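Protein 1 of 2
SEQ + STRUCT:
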Amino acid sequence: MASAPITRHPPRFDQAGLTYRPAAARFHSQNAWLDSWHSFSFAGHYDPDWCGFGPLRVINEDHIQAGNGFGMHPHADMEIITVMLAGELRHQDSIGHSESLRCGEVQRMSAGSGIVHSETNSSTAPCHLLQIWIEPSGRGLAPGYEQKPFTIDRGWTLLIDPQGQEGAMAINRPVRLWRARAGAAQVLGCPVALDAQGWIQMIAGEIIASEIASVETPAGQKPACETAPGQTPASEASPDPLKPVRRFQGEGEADARGPIAVGPIMGVLRQGDGLGFAPGKRISLEAGDQGADLLLFELR
């Protein structure tokens, strides 16, 4: 019989259905070779209010000096994802893998019933990465390992998907993870399903997150934002920064939601910031003047 999904720390939201984690409020660990920022409780850092967000247990931003790293150590019952942002990291484990993880690659490791591995920077330059831990759908599952390179464009690139769609990798939890490098003032659709929780983790740049709501259109009346195929909507071309009405569409999805109105700004997110949102939240994400590099999680 399959065991129940592990979710030790259900998410907490404010009255607006949001959870904001500023970069400067993260826990910080530092020694001669490691500079690490922890979005949630980790190692010797503990706060009962910050022990995870649903199945999302760890987001660590690590800078590791050349010639250093983590020696062999064990894990069990955890899905571990490493996103390489700069440099390279050498991985060795007890199930026979010995690989170099380079900038632009993503690694997923299912610890399952138990795995021992090491992570060392054997290069001559520092490396920079995000390591993410997600609680699995059950205990004692078979360990596994995979890594892939991904080309990150202006739109969402799917890194993790339960069915491995669009070349993504699958983990033992129905979680999706995207990354995008948005251009200046680019608006990103939010592909997170309305029945799932979401988490945004900023890598670089700036994102303005705003809440959106459906606009009621009287029967027979053409929505104000509707345009002919190939035509730029007037609201998108307008210099008005509020852009009061425009169409919203999740990446790769048909626009079945209809016209929406951009509501109040939920937050301005910058490097290292995180923002969680409750199921049912529909949001618009607009990059700042310098663009934005970010991760987006769909969590169940």
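Protein 2 of 2
SEQ + STRUCT:
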Amino acid sequence: MLHKRKMCGPVRLAAVVVCVGVLVPGVIPPGGARAQLSDEPVTGLPAPGPEAYASLQKLVAELDRSGGTVVAEVGPHTVTRADIADIIRAMPPIAGGVPFPLLYQRAATRALEQAALALRGETTGLDNDPVVRRRMRNAASDALATEVIRRSLAPNLTEQALHSTYDALVANKPAPEEVDIRLIMVDTEAEATALIGQLNGGANFAELAAKFSKDGTAGNGGDLGYARQDLLSSEIGAIAFAMAPGQMTAYPVRSGNAWFIIRVESRRQPATPSFDAARGALEQDIIHAGAPFLMQQALKSAPVKYHGVAGINAAKDPN
């Protein structure tokens, strides 16, 4: 899923970056958490100013201000605003253009899904399985290591360093080209083929997307908006950027576990982002640049005993 390091970080989604659809899929049956959240307004949140919608960093900061506030309970598990913020924080920068209530509700749905699945695992005793326990320990170690990197390198995020990085990587350079696309996502190739037949017969793309697409853009007629190629999956990005405005894929496109029909509406060459707009990406770039040296330092100072491929008999897991 990683790709060549660019200004906005190494993010590539399994399918297409539909910030609140494919990225945070809501695959809950009717009557479940999705139904409960879909029409419920988001209330009680500190009202962010217009600038808060410019980046995910500012959006999550609004949630972090009252991160301990519980927004849902799933059995013994609680979901807080900080949990919602963590899910939104993991999204690519393009998600910042999604209306905040919709972004919040999709993230909350994802948090409820995770809690419900965890509860099911605990109920069946799966959390005591040795393999699962090992993976849980690894996940905890990964989260701790990530936080060590973030906090250790935070002093590097000076205004001078940020401006220097901006001047070197962004200023006076053309921004990546973007395409405005509509898409329809379905489960099978046969469904996609049938819909392409209807579109070739004169059916309206937006109407079919609203009726049949399982992507988060369905409510907007399949309109994803403008996106750069590095924020799309390799399959969809390659095809979308090879088409001219007004063209539609002649055959279904598979990406991840879904099938897509793609139509390119227009293309544009956006202006170079301002320093303020690029600030979040610049911070990530500086942290990514400093992480390898920090990891080498940690490894040298840790009491490591490497036993090679053959290894030794592992001690019994006390847990």
